[in-house]
Amino acid sequence: MRRLRRFFSRWQNWIAVLLILGFVIVAVAAPYISPDDPKQPGPFKRVGRATEGSPLPPSEKAPLGMLPFGMDVLHPLVWGARGALQFGLIVTLCTAFFGVLYGAVAGMIGGRAGGLLMSVADSFLAFPVIAGVVFLHELYATTITALGGMYFTSPYFGQVIEIVGPMTAIQWLLDRVNPLMLSLIVLSWMPYARLVHSIVLLLTKTEFVQAARALGGSFFWMVRKHIIPNSISPALVLAARDVGGVVLLQATLTFINIGGDSIWGAMLAQGRGWVIGPGGNLLAYWWVFLPPTLAVMLFGIAWNMLGDGLADVLDPQMT
Amino acid sequence: MPPFLQFVIRRFLVVPVSLFMISLVLYGGVMLTPPEARAELYMPERVNPNLSDEQLERLHEKIIARYHLRDPFPVQYFYWVQTLFDGSWGYSPSLNQNVLPALLQRTPITLELGLYSLLFLIPLGLANGVTAGWRRREGYDRMFRGLAFLGTSTPTFILALVFLSVFYINLGWFAPERLSLDFTLELSKGEFVKYTGMLTIDSLLNGRPDIFLDAWRHLAMPIFTLSLYHWATLGRVARATVLNERGKEYVIAARARGVAENSLIWRHVYRNVISPSLTSMALSAASIVTGVFVAEIIFDFNGVSFIIVNAMSGIPDAPAALGFAIYSIIMVLLLMFILDVLQALFDPRVREGVLRS
């Protein structure tokens, strides 16, 4: 209770919570705010003429204006909130869960075996996310072509995929999970493991854990009762910041066309040629880039602020 | 042998071990695909594109037999590792070139960008973080926290777009790509000797200050966008460490002895900040390398990242992707090694701690 009061005594935390609530509300209410067109499923909706190459300013048909080729700005903006929240939360929950468990187990085992587990985690640290995404993506593409299917990307049709025959393991995997999500989960659990591992090493020396062991507490009982509750708060801080971080990374990789599928990032990529208006004026076509930019930045800021706020409450010495 | 050298050697031996573990994981990923797809990794150079399906199948079978692609994991892995040492790393159809030469040829470009960014962000991040921590809750600290906060929550590409519009189009100070068109043409004529492949060094060796300046004009924006995020995280760690250190007894003792404030920060406290800060950097080395590639792509640098941009936008190219993965992992491992050595250089506890264990 005291922590809760302390948390809400700072205005930054109010902003963070309100912003995140706002994103959640928009994500949940997306079908009401900007209804899906049954003829054009998916996050992008054409409301203007497809031949209109330049972005049109806000009008009645498109309250926030249009991207080039008559695409609505509001629709992907709203549905992007849903995509971003889903992506950020799924990735973070998976990595945090696995990382905390891994670190706790490695710390409890201790000795040589625990050290070996941690050095496996450390070698994962050397794997950059960008390489993982490209690697998975190309394996998928090669598998399809090698089995007689078709895979190519073209400026007109986008990705063309045709699968012949039964799916292999990697086809099945990548057909359901996107490669960026998979590589982020596989490649970002190590900080949690390291954090929890270091806490566990400190905890196992404390008297209450020694006492629990002396009382005959089983391995998993001690992990569940003592280790996880004591290491959960620093992991929570890390996780809150991660939600924003992975969504920013997703948007960045989408923008440079390296296998992300962030809706906000795709909006910016579509309007890329119009971001800088004539004479270097950033505001000439503001509706092309300002809404998705603000959405991405506010999303990152909100989760970062939440992380800072949590860190302040859970570990007040460090701020 | 001096303990420092001993530390360096011991630390360097970790690199191949980590590489081995990661390569097991990598090849584990490759193993998910059927043998026919794995055969694509070993395709010879210049396959006739008009091969019939039957001929292609026969070629695949031949490769599968030669590299034991239907055998269990350890056998396959062994044959794959062998091919890594033949100096080609497979033939990439999208580059029309062997992968390893393509990677090495572009390395100086990426290295130039990465090295200058690190040289820029590490001293600055440490200095700003330490000062902010020392002057907690003062104006300097507030400004640092605000900037660091913006730095960690602004996506690189948005920063890049803003920079392009302000510094390239409006002010004309900096420019994207690697070099202006005139100089690029001049370079291709062949009078300019390429000693290292890094433009900033080569231009000086060739006695061309104009090219040197131009290269910096083009490096400035990518370096800055790339550095901001890591500057912010490094600075935050440094700041947090200072907050931890400044209540310690040695600080009080030094102050009681009448040590001047400035020398107290930069001689006593600073030394204790370097070590944890560099550790946190080494832990995020992979994200720094990712950042280098992203900055390259956004500013059209055509460095090593050109290979993946190419692979992602056309025909499937597994050899290029696998080669790029190994290459970037080696880069990260080397970066971690360098940061750890730097840390040991400043902090005797680190080098002696390792030797004792």
Task: Give a verbal description of the structure.
Chain A is 66% helix and 4% strand. In chain A, the strands form 2 sheets. Chain A has a two-stranded antiparallel ribbon. In chain A, helix 4 runs antiparallel to helix 5. The radius of gyration of chain A is 23 Å and the shape is globular. Chain A starts with a helix and ends in a 5-residue tail after the last helix. The mean pLDDT of chain A is 82. In chain B, strands 1-2 form a two-stranded antiparallel ribbon. In chain B, strand 1 and strand 2 form a beta hairpin. In chain B, helix 13 crosses helix 15. Chain B is globular and about 85 Å long. Chain B contains 16 helices and 2 strands. The two termini of chain B are 17 Å apart. At the A-B interface, helix 5, helix 6, strand 3, helix 7 and helix 11 of A face helix 1, helix 2, helix 6, helix 7 and helix 10 of B.
Strand and helix map with partners:
The complex is a heterodimer of chains A (319) and B (357).
Chain A: H1 2-7, H2 11-28, H3 30-33, E1 66-67, E2 71-72, H4 74-109, H5 111-124, H6 129-146, E3 150-154, E4 158-162, H7 169-176, H8 179-187, H9 190-203, H10 207-214, H11 219-255, H12 263-270, H13 286-314
Antiparallel strand pairs in A: 1-2, 3-4
Helix pairs in contact in A: 2-4, 2-13, 4-5, 4-8, 4-9, 4-11, 5-9, 6-8, 9-11, 11-12, 11-13, 12-13
Chain B: H1 3-31, H2 35-39, H3 53-66, H4 73-84, E1 91-92, E2 97-98, H5 99-134, H6 139-153, H7 156-170, H8 181-189, H9 199-205, H10 209-245, H11 249-256, H12 261-283, H13 285-298, H14 305-312, H15 318-346, H16 348-356
Antiparallel strand pairs in B: 1-2
Helix pairs in contact in B: 1-15, 1-16, 5-6, 5-10, 5-12, 6-10, 7-10, 9-10, 10-12, 10-13, 11-12, 12-15, 13-15, 15-16
Quick take:
The complex is a heterodimer of chains A (319) and B (357). Chain A is mainly alpha-helical. Chain A contains 13 helices and 4 strands.
The portion of residues forming beta strands of chain A comes to under 5%
Described by strand count, sense and barrel closure, the largest sheet of chain B is: 2 strands, antiparallel
Summed up, the helix count of chain B is 16
* N-to-C series of helices and strands of chain B: HHHHEEHHHHHHHHHHHH
Largest beta sheet of chain A: what is the strand line-up?
Answer: 1-2
Strand content of chain B: under 5%
What gap, in angstroms, lies between the N and C termini of chain A?
21 Å
State the helical fraction of chain B: over 70%
From the alpha carbons, calculate the radius of gyration of chain B and give it in angstroms: 25 Å
State the end-to-end CA separation of chain B: 17 Å
SS-based class of chain B: mainly alpha
Average pLDDT, all residues of chain B: 85
Low-confidence stretches of chain B are none
Shape of chain A: globular
Oligomer: heterodimer
Main interface pair?
Answer: A-B, 66 and 66 residues
Q: Helical element count of chain A? A: 13
> Which residues of chain A form runs of ≥5 with pLDDT under 50?
none
**Globular, elongated, flat, extended or rod-shaped: what is the shape of chain B?**
globular
